[in-house]
Amino acid sequence: MDLVPALKEPLQQPLKSVLGPATAKVMAEHLGLHTVGDLLHHYPRRYEERGQLTHLADLPMDEHVTVVAQVADARLHSFASARAPRGKGQRLEVTITDGSGRLQLVFFGSGVHKPHKDLLPGTRAMFSGKVSVFNRRLQLAHPAYELLRADTDESVEAWAGALIPLYPATAKLESWKIGKAIQTVLPSAQEVLDPLPDSLRDGRGLVSLPEALLKIHRPHTKADIADARARLKWDEAFVLQVALARRRHADAQLPAVPRVPAADGLLTSFDARLPFSLTEGQRKVSKEIFDDLATDHPMHRLLQGEVGSGKTLVALRAMLAVVDAGGQAAMLAPTEVLAQQHHRSVVEMMGELAEGGMLGGSERATKVVVLTGSMGTAARRQALLDLVTGEAGIVIGTHALIEDKVRFHDLGLVVVDEQHRFGVEQRDALRGKGKQPPHLLVMTATPIPRTVAMTVFGDLETSVLDQLPAGRSPIASHVVPAADKPHFLARAWERVREEVGNGHQAYVVCPRIGDDVDEPGSPKKAGAKKKPPEDEAEKRPPLAVLDIADQLAKGPLHGLGVEVLHGRMPPDDKDAVMRRFAAGDTDVLVATTVIEVGVNVPNATAMVIMDADRFGVSQLHQLRGRVGRGTAPGLCLLVSEMPEASAARQRLNAVAATLDGFELSRIDLEQRREGDVLGQAQSGARSSLRVLAVIEDEEVIAEAREEAARLVAADPELETLPGLRTALDALLDEEREQYLDKG
To answer: What pLDDT is stored for residue 101 in this prediction?
Structure first.
């Protein structure tokens, strides 16, 4: 699944035939490397210069590190132990230095003999091991090491050039062993097929692929590394953009029914009853969507907009346009709470226009139905009937819409809300329900930096709503340091009481439900990775809805109406809780992130997020968007027990400092690896990007997209570029090909 050129023999040779079965097994299991080609594309993480030593002063605890340093001192001690009761146990303590700090290495037992001979004062070497603490001093116990000296032909050859590449390694396979394996296969780089067209390479002054591989693994100067990285970034960006450009080209060949709204139909009546005028942004984006709907190939558009920018209204107008044109529209929501919420708000906005076939309904009206997995049999049967007869122009539902039993009269538009919550297969199944491919509108309230949109959603055209409708109130956000300043937390609950006293309502959000079943965020969850404990707050389980609701009702919020909402409640109960909260019957709703998207209660003005450090930046921004939706200003309090200097607190400070979702999404992306973003949004496999950074390399990605579009328009089958065709085959193995097909 890696974005590497498919390499012909001998580059597709399995590693075990070149390096031996033991090394090949470790490389496959721990690094995902299987062929000579895979290994050639395992690039150094950084480089050490011979004359410059690493900083021992800032070694991370409990991490596997590689350092280059000089032996300052080596002493052999004898000691008594259970195994060597007569004082015949041996311990070798070696102190190494790099000018910035000192580090102790320790070897025991029979393992002391070789290092005692090798590690003489003045010797320079690479050391690799896990950093631990003993007697309040940092140490490496039994580190692996490689001497750096040039007194034999082999080591001169092995460390030719002034720069030592340090590779992403594992405890089972040190960096220099990977380096030696790469030196073994490096001659094969000459066989690589170059995926970039000559004209593109020459026009941008890029080195050939064999030269780039040689320079990244065996650089003589920093300029060599820069040349190699510039070239390899282009490979990654260009091959992916060609794949996406071919997808767009293929989509453009598909037939679709043009959907042009009637001049004086449902959409016109709907616009006339709106109590406000559309923002400039909503008008612009609506025009882009209507232009797409009028064409005879399927629209594939991503609509991203800030929390509360009015995406639902834009999507509803698109659905009404399709109903006007004789088709049906389906909206896919990720949760039952959200599906019910959308259904309520759509029916409310449409009024008598949503009462097709009913007394009091407008003559232009259609029927709006909801379809979820937990509906009663009679209601479900009626909804299915309304869809197959065409009586219902609009259906809003969860993945229940995808089931085989669901049939449409004429599905013309699919709107997917919060697309990252749906698997490719689910979206594809719904799109397959049209007689011809329906138009597709994908919505997300998670702002996506332009480059990520071009990389992850590159087969979709993008529309952005970045203007908030008039009348939306500002949201003030503050971090509440519960451990450092407990009185701040007491004040937070006072603020909630004040908001309720002024006739408003509040949310309290917790990471966990708290009913002892394994759940996301619960430390008991099998296979969950333990976070490095920054302090005690990290070690306890995340706070839970059921516990907090109980404590608040008996304590600081005693006397107020407190209810709970979480994902494992029966659907009818969830709906009843939301209805009571929306009607103002409940003062405080203690909930999990089920309220993260789409929940719209204008009277809710305050939100307290417990253990806020357990949520991602974009998720906090989403949650915060649930308040300040009316005319009164919103307040969001981010409660955390993390210490002030921790990365978690800095992240919360960033959220409190800005309401700009695009700025926050950049921060979010910079703090995570690109692979998390791309891997999750692509097929879920390991990220295909190794040297391309989607934030920093915006220019390369934008240029690669233009070049790819030009090239595919001229030669969709890539008949003139066998190297590129081969590279695509490597990127698009069957699974990824299907992924892009389904987009």
So the answer is: 81
Judge whether 233 and 692 are in contact, CB under 8 Å: yes
- Average confidence (pLDDT) over 201-227: 92
What is residue 312's predicted lDDT score, i.e. its pLDDT? 87
Q: Report the amino acid identity of residue 605.
A: T
Torsion of Cα atoms, 54 then 59 then 64 then 68, to 10°: 20
Q: How far are the Cα atoms of 123, 334, 372, 396, 588 from residue 369, in angstroms, in the given order? A: 77, 17, 10, 6, 30
Q: pLDDT digits over 467-501, tens only?
A: 766 666 778 999 999 888 888 999 999 999 999 99
Which helix (H) or strand (E) segment holds residue 201: the answer is helix 198-203
Which positions ≥6 away from 1 have C-beta within 8 Å?
A: 683, 685, 686, 688, 733, 735, 736
Instruction: Give the DSSP letter of residue 193.
Output: P
Q: Provide φ and ψ at 356, rounded to 5°.
A: -55, 130
Among 249-253, 438-442, 452-456, which is the least confidently predicted range?
A: 452-456
Cα–Cα distance, 258 to 293 (Å, whole number): 6
In the structure, what pLDDT confidence band is assigned to residue 6 with cuts at 50, 70 and 90?
very low
Give pLDDT, residue 134: 81
Q: Which of 149, 141, 93 is nearest to 116 (CA)?
A: 93
Q: CB of 521 within 8 A of CB of 511?
A: yes
Separation of alpha carbons 409 and 386, rounded Å: 9
Other Cβ atoms closer than 10 A to 549: 23
**CA 523 to each of CA 396, 516, 517, 547, 663: distance values in angstroms, whole numbers, following the listed order:** 35, 11, 11, 16, 31
Query: Is the pLDDT score of 424 beyond 80?
Result: no
How long is the chain?
Answer: 743
DSSP string covering 351-379: GGGGBTTSTT--TT--EEEEE-TT--HHH
User: From CA 189, how far away is CA 688, in angstroms rounded?
Assistant: 20
Look at residues 708, 127, 130 and name the one whose alpha carbon lies nearest to residue 459: 708
How do residues 319-378 score in pLDDT, each as one tens digit? 999 999 999 999 988 888 888 888 988 998 898 888 876 655 567 789 999 998 888 889
Return the axis-axis angle of helices 175-185 and 21-31, rounded to nearest 10°.
Answer: 110
**342 and 598 Cβ atoms separated by less than 8 Å:** yes
Which one is predicted more confidently, 449 or 267? 267
Q: Do residues 342 and 417 make contact, with C-beta atoms less than 8 angstroms apart?
A: yes
User: Cβ–Cβ contacts within 10 Å for residue 193, how many?
Assistant: 18
Return the pLDDT at 460. 78
Tokens 């892009």 correspond to 740
- Distances in whole angstroms, Cα of residue 301 to Cα of each of 67, 251, 449, 462, 622: 49, 12, 16, 6, 22
| HSE toward the beta carbon, residue 327, CA cutoff 13 A | 27
pTM of the predicted model, to two decimals? 0.65
Q: Which residue is listed with tokens 């008039």? A: 470
C-alpha dist (Å) from residue 481 to 492, 531, 549: 11, 20, 20
Instruction: Give 634's strand partners.
Output: 475
Q: Among 242, 5, 1, 189, which Cα is nearest to 727's?
A: 5
Distance between CA 439 and CA 415 in Å, rounded?
9
> Closest Cα to residue 655, out of 698, 607, 697?
607
274 versus 58: which is more confidently predicted? Answer: 274
Evaluate whether 667 touches 654 at the Cβ level (below 8 Å). Answer: yes
Q: Which of 63, 211, 29 is nearest to 132 (CA)?
A: 63
Per-residue confidence (pLDDT) for residue 478, from 0 to 100 = 94
Token pair recorded at residue 59: 């070694």
pLDDT band at residue 519 under the 50/70/90 scheme: very low
Q: Please name the amino acid found at residue 210.
A: P
Q: For residue 82, what pLDDT is reported? A: 60
| Amino acid (one-letter) located at 102 | R
| Rounded distance between C-alpha atoms, residue 279 and residue 285, angstroms | 10
Amino acid at residue number 291: D
- Residue 34's pLDDT is 86
